[in-house]
Automatic annotation (TrEMBL):
Domain AB hydrolase-1: 31-289
The name this protein goes by in its record: Proline iminopeptidase
Recorded superkingdom: Bacteria
Gene Ontology terms describing biological process: proteolysis
Family statement: Belongs to the peptidase S33 family.
Subcellular location: Cytoplasm
Length: 314
């Protein structure tokens, strides 16, 4: 996709967010929100947009990707990210736009949209995650042992026995520990486990290596930001599902993998039941990952459909 602009936007608190735009500057404005939190934008993800029809804006959230920071965790909360999105919209002079995001990107999309519904023309969300502890416990403490018992044993077995009654908090505490000897094995284990849960057919569904000994392996970035957000209930003041009524009447399509173990279909359906104007499109067979071609095709079709609606709204 043709890149139009690339810039760092100072948002205060020691943060500069990296903002890029692509496609047709006269096209339908669309905001793409990456997942994680902490993963950053991958340009390949933007292939779901028709570059001749859309003016696509994507940015690396605070502490992620090419964004700059003095301290990645300082002033890094969901309200900060929502405010950053408004700064970007104003920077580009956009009145209303389509908002597209998946997993954590869907969480942030909903947080932004419920705060600024008048700025939304349409939404396309993939693998809805509402940012609750219940969803994380369901994925790592219920789905994981049910579908990957050996991986669950490896995952929990990394903790001392005293901490196995508080698995998630114990992991996040260690991931955020400043000592590399502490955070290295737990950040890798979290990343690898999450990866298994996100794909239909993982290559190695266990933690078989000595995670402490692999000093040559680059550390994944997302576990640190995820631990920061998840430890703080994603910095949400109120449950998103209780605020989604503010979007009633706005069109939304929820793309959902049938066998998504991280963000299962029940969440998308629960959201749609409270959002008049939204619908769920189930993709099967498919899991969580946007790398699945069937998921990408469904996203492209949904975005095209929403574009037709927006043509009459802009």
């Amino acid at each position: 996709m043709k890149e139009l602009t690339r810039d760092n936007l100072a948002v205060g608190d020691g943060h500069e967010i990296h903002v890029r735009s692509y496609g047709n500057p006269g096209g339908i404005p669309a905001l793409f929100l990456h997942g994680g939190p902490g993963s950053g934008v991958q340009e390949s993800q933007l292939g779901i947009f028709d570059p001749s029809r859309f003016h696509v804006i994507a940015f690396d959230q605070r502490g992620a990707g090419l964004s700059r920071f003095d301290d990645r965790f300082h002033a890094n909360t969901t309200p900060h990210l929502v405010a950053d999105i408004e700064r970007i919209r104003e920077r580009f002079g956009i009145e209303r736009w389509m908002v597209v995001g998946g997993s954590w990107g869907a969480t942030l999309a909903l947080a932004y949209a419920t705060a600024h519904a008048d700025r939304i023309g349409a939404m396309v969300l993939r693998a809805v995650f509402l940012g609750t502890r219940h969803e994380l416990e369901r994925a790592f403490l219920s789905s994981l042992p049910r579908f990957y018992p050996q991986l669950y044993a490896d995952f929990v077995g990394l903790l001392p026995e005293d901490d196995r009654s508080r698995v998630l908090d114990a992991y996040w505490d260690r991931i955020l520990d400043a000592d590399p000897a502490v955070h290295r094995p737990f950040s890798i284990a979290w990343h690898d486990t999450e990866r298994v849960l996100s794909v239909l057919s993982p290559d190695v569904p266990c933690l078989s290596e000595d995670l402490s000994a692999r000093g040559d392996r680059p550390l994944p970035r997302t576990p640190f930001m995820e631990a920061h957000y998840f430890h703080n209930d994603c910095f949400l003041d109120a449950p998103l599902i209780e605020q989604v009524h503010r979007l009633n009447g706005l069109p939304g399509i929820l793309i959902q993998g049938r066998y998504d173990l991280l963000c299962p279909p029940e969440t998308s359906y629960a959201l749609a039941s409270r959002w008049t104007g939204s619908s769920v499109r189930v993709v099967s067979p498919a899991g969580h990952s946007m790398e699945d071609q069937s998921i990408r095709s469904a996203l492209t079709a949904a975005i095209t459909e929403m574009a037709r609606l927006m043509n009459g709204r802009l």
